[in-house]
Write a structure and sequence with these properties.
The chain is an alpha+beta fold. The protein has helices at 2-5, 19-29, 37-40, 44-50, 60-74, 108-113, 117-132, 144-153, 163-173, 175-178, 187-203, 209-224, 234-237, 241-252, 267-274, 339-350, 406-418, 425-430, 447-454, 460-466, and strands at 85-89, 96-98, 103-107, 278-279, 287-289, 292-295, 300-303, 309-312, 317-320, 327-334, 355-362, 365-374, 381-390, 393-402, 432-440, 480-488. β12 (365-374) and β13 form a beta hairpin. It starts with a helix and ends in a 5-residue tail after the last strand. The structure holds zinc ion. Zinc ion binds next to α7 and α11.
């Protein structure tokens, strides 16, 4: 199952992850007593192993810049027995995290919201603080991908998928948990990391007040963020944001700054560093337009039932019934493009006995449908399955509900399965991404006026927060301002 472990991109052609196995694993996380703290601490080896699975931003200039900044900070760290390494993770959510081996990560989502090198230096300094303080994060299943699956099925799914399937998906579904990325530090650890981070930043020549400014921005972003974000938010892994704004400001006043010049002094030069970074989801991974999911590279769309909660996860795109007693998932099953062959392969792998296997066509492509029942500790589960031909494999659609309630969902599963179709030209136009830009503000300009002039796609409030301003503020003349533009997706067919 190396293909699963080595590929985090949702629904890419090489992804063979199984929804069943992923939910099986997630179910396990909710079973039994909480793991003890020692066992939950991710080891250096596990971080190194998981590293290839983390999607990283490849921009060589930006990466070199973050590394140079990080290394200068690391030289001031009170802990020198580890080799610090710095990475930009290709995630839209603003976050930063550290592994015990000296690995420090910031997301592209975080970079987009920083407004100066001082802010970035303090954020990275704070993560160095977690490494230096040897902080073991307390494991909590905060990663929404796991949390969601938990809530969908809980332990009911345990026993559905067996053996090797589960082991492979474990690597994928567990990658966030395994690295401790979803873990929360406690109050004292946060305080100590702020202290080390601000000290390190000040000694290396940056303004320790940058920590306070960025925490203020984060506090406002978190207030706007959707609660069902797929990946752990900064607040989830670094709680106590509010009190840190005050305590870091007080501390900053007591710290002396080193003589070295920052790498980037002016705000517009800092913005130039992060200019054109992607903001928001990567359209190559598929996007939701309401209940309709559009995947440009696999060239399909599917309509999830109205009112269902939908989520594009690494292993699958999923919908969950409002009553949380049914899920519908679509995955790419690499291998044979012959739906009947794909069905047989999957049945063997998942140890399922297929009933009523019938071939047909869905959205103009050869397809096979089947039913199955699987045992679980909570009683039998009913599965409605379909395989739809695509180059290099099939799209596998699975509807899953407790057997006793299967009849309630049968029509909904069938309608969603039948909605699978290649993207129309109009669908393709909707698959867009966003990129960061910056330009000068006009004196007295409102956020709305600025957005109209620049075709900015951030809301006025987000624009203000992203630029370190209060919502409703008017612009100062010549102040550099960040905004985002829509970029058509050009990949795929
Ligand atoms: Zn922290």
């Amino acid at each position: 199952m190396a293909a699963v472990a080595g590929d985090l991109r949702p629904l890419t052609r090489s992804s063979a992850g199984t929804l069943l196995a992923a939910t099986l694993l997630a179910g396990c996380a909710s079973l039994g007593p909480a793991p003890d703290r020692e066992a939950a601490v991710p080891g250096e080896a596990s971080v190194a192993q998981a590293l290839p699975q983390l999607p990283l931003v490849r921009d060589p200039e930006l990466t070199a810049y973050v590394q140079a900044l990080g290394e200068r900070l690391a030289r001031q760290s009170p802990r020198q027995d580890v080799e610090y390494q710095f990475f930009i993770v290709d995630w839209p959510e603003p976050n930063a995290f550290a592994g015990p081996g000296g690995f420090v990560f910031v997301t592209r989502g975080l970079l987009a919201f920083t407004n100066s090198e001082d802010e970035l230096a303090n954020v990275i300094g704070h993560e160095i603080g977690h490494v230096a303080g040897r902080h073991a994060a307390e494991r909590e299943a905060r990663a929404a991908s796991i949390d969601l699956a938990n809530r969908m099925l809980g332990s009911a799914i345990a026993g559905v998928a067996g053996g090797g399937v589960g082991a492979g998906a474990a690597a994928q579904a567990g990658q966030v948990a395994g690295m401790g990325l979803n873990a929360a530090y406690n109050r004292d650890q946060e305080r100590e990391s702020d202290e080390i981070g601000q000290q390190v930043a000040a000694q290396a020549g940056w303004d320790p007040l940058g920590m306070t400014r960025f925490l203020g921005t984060l506090e406002q972003i978190e207030a706007l963020q959707k609660p069902d974000s797929q990946r752990p938010t900064y607040l989830a892994s670094h709680p106590t944001l509010g009190e840190r704004v005050d305590s870091t400001a007080t501390r900053a006043a007591t710290l002396e700054r080193g003589a070295a010049d920052p790498l980037t002094k002016k705000q517009r030069d800092y913005y130039r560093r992060i200019d054109r970074i992607r903001v928001g989801p990567d359209p190559a991974l598929g996007i939701f337009q309401g209940q309709r999911f559009l995947h440009p590279d696999l060239d399909f769309r599917i309509d999830f039932p109205g009112g269902w909660r939908v989520n594009n996860l690494p292993a699958a795109v999923l919908g969950m019934a409002p009553g949380r007693d049914a899920i519908l998932g679509v995955e790419f099953q690499a291998g044979s493009s012959d739906p009947a062959v794909a069905a047989a392969e999957f049945a063997k792998l998942a140890r399922l006995e297929l009933k009523d296997l019938a071939t047909s066509s869905i959205g103009g492509a050869p397809a096979a449908r089947a039913q199955a029942t699987a045992g679980s500790p909570a009683g039998p589960l009913s599965l409605q399955l379909a395989w739809i031909a695509r180059p290099g494999g099939t799209l596998r659609v699975i509807g899953l509900a407790p057997a006793a309630r299967a009849a309630k969902y049968q029509a909904g599963f069938a309608a969603a399965t039948d909605s699978v179709a290649p993207l129309a030209r109009d669908d393709r136009r909707k698959v867009v991404g966003y990129e960061l830009r910056f330009t000068k503000g006009f004196g007295g300009e409102s956020m709305q006026e600025f957005s109209r002039r620049t075709q900015n796609r951030w809301s006025p409030d987000v624009t203000a927060i992203a630029n370190g301003l209060r919502p409703g503020a008017r612009l100062e003349a010549d102040r550099p301002m960040k905004y985002i533009v829509e970029v058509p997706y050009k990949g795929g067919r």
